[in-house]
Amino acid sequence: MNFEKFEYDYYKKGYKNICGIDEVGRGCLFGDVVSCAIIMPKGDYIEGVNDSKKLTPKKREELYTKILESCVAVGIGRADADIIDKVNIKMATHISMINALENLKDSEGKKVEADCVLIDAETIKTGIFQKAIIKGDESCYSIACASIIAKVYRDNLCKRWAEKYPNYGIEKHKGYATKYHREALKTYGPSDMHRKTFLKNIKLW
Questions:
Q1: CA 93, 99, 102, 103: dihedral to nearest 10 degrees?
Q2: Reduced to 3 states, what is the DSSP secondary structure of residue 31?
Q3: CA–CA separation, 20 and 142 (whole Å)
Q4: Alpha helix segments (H runs only) across 71-176
Q5: Cα separation, 25 vs 34, whole angstroms
Q6: Which 8-state DSSP code applies to residue 41?
Q7: Cα torsion at 25, 58, 148, 13 (round to 10°)?
């Protein structure tokens, strides 16, 4: 499979700034959902890029640096637990994706406008042409790059959150509903960064 097929299809149609978007943290009990929007240079393929879930932490870290050094522009968007509880996780994910798209900047901090957006299985509110790609992080190069940046960015946030909320082991499970996390919730109760609407679906007591 040609991992850059989607990008080249749209280059042929005249698009220039083709942006991939993906999110991480959608299924967590704790913390923000984080999205990355990224424009990669045409023809400058980074070997080893894949869906972030299929890579080791060490490989993700290596690719994270290479991708940021190579990209035309990158933007991060976040939606915290309060927003998630208020509007639901799907809408919060869309908010984070839109914010990431609006935050696209080059290495000098200058704003960059995408003219084509490739998104992992979502459709967001934007006037820019967009294409939702099922399992895009497995089949589309720019979306896979976005998945790696979003994952490493959020993992680094988890390390900082763990210092502020040391009772939950956030640095280990990244906020997902592991046994350790559920036991910690039973012992200490939820923090202000836990998603209260998510906890209703888990039997803690």
A1: -120
A2: coil
A3: 5
A4: 81-87, 89-102, 136-139, 141-164, 170-173
A5: 6
A6: P
A7: -160
- Length of the chain (residues): 205
**Residue in the block written with tokens 């979306």:** 143
What are the backbone angles phi and psi of residue 73, rounded to the nearest 5°? -160, 155
SS3 186: helix
Q: pLDDT value at position 63?
A: 98
| DSSP letter assigned to residue 174 | T
Write phi, then psi, for 174 (nearest 5 degrees): 60, 20
Distance CA 84, CA 56 (A): 28
Burial 37-53 (b: 16+ CB within 10 A, else e): bbbbeeeeebeebbbbe
Q: What is the pLDDT of residues 6-33, one digit of tens each?
A: 999 999 999 999 999 999 999 999 999 9
Alpha-carbon span 148 to 57, nearest angstrom: 10
Alpha-carbon dihedral angle through residues 174, 178, 180, 186, given to the nearest 10 degrees: 110
What is the pTM (predicted TM-score) of this model? Answer: 0.96
